Amino acid sequence: MVWIIIIFLSIFIFLLVGKLRFTKGYENTWLFIFIAIAFSPMNILYGWRLADSLFWLESDLFKFVWTLVFIFAFLSADEIVLGIIGRLVWQNQQEYIDEDKNSYLESCMDDFEDPLY
User: Fold this and answer.
1) Where are the alpha helices (DSSP H) in 1-117?
2) d(CA 27, CA 93)
3) Do residues 51 and 67 make contact, with C-beta atoms less than 8 angstroms apart?
4) Is residue 47 within 8 Å of 39, Cβ to Cβ?
5) What is the DSSP letter of 59?
6) Under a CB-based contact definition with an 8 Å cutoff, are residues 75 and 43 in contact?
7) For the whole model, what pTM was predicted?
8) Dist. CA 97–CA 4, nearest whole Å
């Protein structure tokens, strides 16, 4: 049952990102944002369940810390997998780095001397 919800939620997010006008050219970024919002309740639930089942003799603070670790691990896995799929679907993305700013940073780095030499 959970896998069906995950699949339908993923398809809905892909359709949403594909149809909204303001996501044009930045689909991967918006996919990242929508996945983080939509999958958080499920990641919290399963993170707590996993921490509770693995550390059932430990204190609640210990379980809470491990719950946070599991939540971030699940969220990262969700975003990596769906981000790769999103990049395959939308290959033409806008550049995030402005070339003028990038050349300025490179010129600043040329003036920097490495203390090891």
Assistant:
1) 2-19, 27-54, 60-89, 99-111
2) 7
3) yes
4) no
5) -
6) yes
7) 0.65
8) 38
